[in-house]
């Protein structure tokens, strides 16, 4: 079973919405592992002197949570705040 998380980010570009999207995804992927999708929530154009000067997008970025440490947390004797698989498991008396 995989679990995903969503975060909202904003990205801008002086040239286009597409460029703002690409820059936002690239930046998110450089600091977040397992980015798997994006939803464009909103778009905005800043205008100066009757011309578009900046393109802004608000995106919801989806990433799958990493399970690589999950087994380690489960075998630590319940030190994970009592929420691991081993929490509450002990030898029967």
From TrEMBL:
Region called Disordered, residue ranges: 67-93
Organism for this UniProt entry: uncultured Pyrinomonadaceae bacterium
InterPro entries attached to this UniProt entry: Dodecin, Dodecin-like, Dodecin-like_sf
UniProt name for this protein: Dodecin domain-containing protein
Lineage, broadest ranks: Bacteria, Pseudomonadati, Acidobacteriota, Blastocatellia, Blastocatellales
Pfam family, one: Dodecin
């Amino acid at each position: 079973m995989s679990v995903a998380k969503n975060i909202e980010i904003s990205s801008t570009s002086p040239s286009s919405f597409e460029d703002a999207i690409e820059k936002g995804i690239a930046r998110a992927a450089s600091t977040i592992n397992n980015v798997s999708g994006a939803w464009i929530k909103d778009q905005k154009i800043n205008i100066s002197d009757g011309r578009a000067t900046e393109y802004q997008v608000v995106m919801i970025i989806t990433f799958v949570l990493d399970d690589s440490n999950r087994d380690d947390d489960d075998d630590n004797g319940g030190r994970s705040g009592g929420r691991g698989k081993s929490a509450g498991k002990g030898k029967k008396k």
